[in-house]
Design goal:
Pfam families: Thymidylate_kin
EC number: 2.7.4.14
Low-confidence stretches: none
Enzyme class: transferase
CATH topology of the largest domain: Rossmann fold
CATH superfamily of the largest domain: P-loop containing nucleotide triphosphate hydrolases
Strand content: 15-25%
Helix content: 40-55%
Bound molecules: adenosine-5'-diphosphate, cytidine-5'-diphosphate
Catalytic activity: dCMP + ATP = dCDP + ADP; CMP + ATP = CDP + ADP
Shape: elongated
Mean pLDDT: 90
Number of helices: 16
Keywords: ATP-binding, Coiled coil, Kinase, Mitochondrion, Nucleotide-binding, Pyrimidine biosynthesis, Transferase, Transit peptide
Length: about 400
């Protein structure tokens, strides 16, 4: 009979490894005495070890968010650069809650893998939990912690798959901030490591904290890259005699590249605060004229969730989850238009535009699953939700449709 999730968490530690297709495989690691002999050994590890390969897991305790996120990113870079160490798979430990990597290396002994790993990890070792994996009695896999303090534990395929992706519970803390105070807190913690964080915070300090919208309409245009946001927002600006704003706003754009190269926690805090900075511009401008905004909070949340939650649509947080709700302290637009386009047409437009692609754009183009998740996430956003508009007709028709939509919302 399958063990319950709560029992596994009470007695064992539970690990989730992201397989090649982005889906998750769950293992439990139990003190040998309470391991039921009927529980099967885990896939992935058993064939690898039986074939003479080796495996190590590295996890980063998450006590201090910013240093932990930076260490995790540094490890990823080091492992990606070190070809002789095998393939790193993203790994979540659910008890204690930690993130890290599982290194799988066919045809290399545990001792040999350890010899390559030790110098690479030397500087980080005090802040990491590292375990090697061993095979005994033909089909028993043991987890063996480095250092003297940990007893080895039996690793088995977990008989329960928690219904929720392990990263869902960390989204609020690490990627989709529910209020400006949280984003500000993260950027403050970054100042010792990233001096530019101070620049962003100084600009934010000058902004009113809960600005109110003026009487003119505020319309946001969202959508994947190359769906026609720039084209549409420019036309709306002209035909409505509106002011056109962008998030992130021009005043922090100079630092965008720096934050784009930082781990999720820091990168998303930058974009989140960017939305609050643009909100004060929206408030000021909407007392004088209509305002069009090219990307806003929905983009920040949708991209953050799609990057953090691996696998397919089934792994996304359930409908009406708190991460889909508009932050209460962020100025709300009157209408959010979502431009939708088939994958083929979007790629054609990207190619005909021909400018250099950012890493995330290139990933979007390549990764159909990621694109599907971003689009689905846009549609799950609430209060306000996005209104989808087909962006495939000619430019003039798209603009006309959106102008009708704006009129129907009684905004002009
Ligand atoms: N309705 C349309 N039909 C055909 N091409 C379009 C349409 N709207 C935009 N484009 C073209 O597609 C490309 C991407 O549009 P753009 O407005 O830059 O998208 P985004 O700002 O969303 O990245 C541009 O070359 C643009 O001229
Ligand atoms: N309000 C915003 C705007 C952009 N972003 C991030 O910036 C990326 C897209 O910005 P972009 O400027 O390349 O998009 P386009 O306006 O070129 O389509 C997304 O991948 C998001 O990660 C965000 O998080 N929040």
């Amino acid at each position: 009979m399958a063990a319950s999730y709560s029992r596994l968490l009470a007695e064992d530690s539970l690990l989730a490894v992201e397989a090649d297709d982005g889906d998750l495989l769950y293992f439990s690691c139990s003190p040998a005495s309470c391991a039921a002999p009927s529980r099967r050994p885990p896939p992935l590890l058993l064939p690898l070890l039986a074939g003479g390969g080796s495996a190590h897991s590295l996890t980063v305790p998450c006590s201090e968010r910013v240093p932990a996120a930076q260490l995790h990113a540094a490890l990823r870079r080091a492992l990606d650069a070190e070809r002789g160490l095998g393939r790193p798979l993203p790994l979540f430990s659910l008890q204690p809650r930690e993130r890290g990597f599982l290194l799988l290396q066919p045809g290399r002994s545990k001792a040999a893998q350890e010899r390559r790993l030790r110098p690479l990890l030397a500087a980080h070792l005090p802040y990491l939990r590292v375990c090697g994996y061993e095979l005994s009695c033909g089909d028993r896999v043991w987890q063996c912690p480095w250092g003297a303090d940990g007893a080895r534990r039996l690793v088995q395929k977990a008989e329960v798959d928690p219904a929720v992706h392990p990263a869902v519970s960390t989204l609020r803390r690490e990627a989709v901030f529910g209020c400006w105070k949280e984003a500000q807190r993260v950027l403050r913690e970054c100042i010792p490591f990233i001096p530019e964080a101070r620049g962003v915070l100084e600009l934010w300090d000058k902004c009113p904290k809960y600005p109110q919208k003026g009487n003119f309409p505020v319309i946001v245009v969202e959508g994947l890259d190359a769906t026609g946001k720039t084209t549409l927002t420019q036309s709306l600006k002209e035909s409505m005699r509106a002011v056109l704003l962008k998030s992130p706003p021009a005043c922090i754009n100079q630092w965008r590249k720096i934050f784009d190269n930082e781990p999720t926690l820091i990168r998303r805090a930058f974009y989140a605060l960017g939305n609050y900075i643009v909100a004060s511009e929206i408030a000021a401008q909407s007392t004088k004229s209509p305002v069009i905004v090219d990307r806003y909070w929905h983009s920040t949340a949708a991209y953050a969730i799609a990057t953090e939650i691996s696998g397919g649509l089934h792994n996304l947080p359930v409908h009406h989850h708190e991460v889909y709700q508009w932050p209460e302290d962020l100025l709300k637009p009157d209408l959010v238009v979502l431009l939708t386009l088939s994958h083929e047409e979007r790629v054609r437009r990207l190619q005909s535009r021909g400018i250099e692609k950012t890493k995330e754009e290139a990933e979007l183009e390549m990764n159909v699953r990621f694109r599907e998740k971003v689009e689905e996430l846009y549609k799950r956003m609430e209060n306000p939700g996005c209104i989808p508009v087909d962006a495939s007709p000619p430019r003039e028709a798209v603009i006309e449709n959106v102008l009708h939509l704006i009129e129907n919302h009684c905004l002009i």
